Prior knowledge:
Blueprint lengths: L13 E9 L2 H16 L2 E9 L3 H13 L5 E6 L11 H9 L8 E5 L6 H13 L4 E5 L13 E5 L1 H14 L11 H14 L6 E6 L26
Parallel strand pairs: 1-2, 1-4, 2-3, 4-5
Antiparallel strand pairs: 5-7, 6-7
Helix pairs in contact: 1-5, 2-5, 3-4, 5-6
Amino acid sequence: xxxxxxxxxxxxxxxxxxxxxxxxxxxxxxxxxxxxxxxxxxxxxxxxxxxxxxxxxxxxxxxxxxxxxxxxxxxxxxxxxxxxxxxxxxxxxxxxxxxxxxxxxxxxxxxxxxxxxxxxxxxxxxxxxxxxxxxxxxxxxxxxxxxxxxxxxxxxxxxxxxxxxxxxxxxxxxxxxxxxxxxxxxxxxxxxxxxxxxxxxxxxxxxxxxxxxxxxxxxxxxxxxxxxxxxxxxx
Length: 235
């Protein structure tokens, strides 16, 4: 299977904007992607969590800093909107999402609009409402409702990256250890399944829903200017 890659000018970092309804959402859904891309190229990360108070706020801050430790620039923003009740503060949430359009991200990471958790679904919906001409990847969160679906974009993860992701999750979110699903078996099992589905050369992968992707067949891999026309093979 051919792999697609980011083709950007070499004179600036990749700009990533990540939205999470709750502390640990971004890490669970896209932590491996963030770790991998920050290790591979210069990356600027805007990390936004909408609901986190008290202990959860401290966990979210420390975890975000750990996952973006290799970024060339980062901005972590944590808000205290009411968890599990984001639909009740729709207007305030929409304002927060809208205000981040000036970050001009190359890649937006957010929740899946079909997620069964009401907070997740609303964040996903408002992301698309505000970022209509962007590459938006919707990540997945395992849960009791069994709503993972059939993702269509996969990011292979090296085993070291996967184990780092799991270790950081377990270390930075002690408040979640009592939950039966929050453990290494869940995270490793899902990554193995997604690795099978995309025939990952590393065996592991994270998966995303990519409702809108634009493919330029003429874009050079080094990010150099696009050709203005076709060059046919001379006979």
